[in-house]
Design brief:
Helices cover 0% and strands 56% of the residues. The protein is built from no helices and six strands. The N and C termini lie far apart (30 Å).
Length: 52
Amino acid sequence: MSRIALLGGGFFTDGRLTEAVTRSPGARLYRVRADGEAGAVEEAVPCRLLGG
């Protein structure tokens, strides 16, 4: 059975980001990873706008 949790606008299934959501148009979620050279790379994750 898969577990799903909501954390800071991201839905995670089995420890992996499966969807990003927001209530604010233009808001972004960023995935940050090491670049292998003592730095980091930020990658914007597309967010689905929640209605309401």
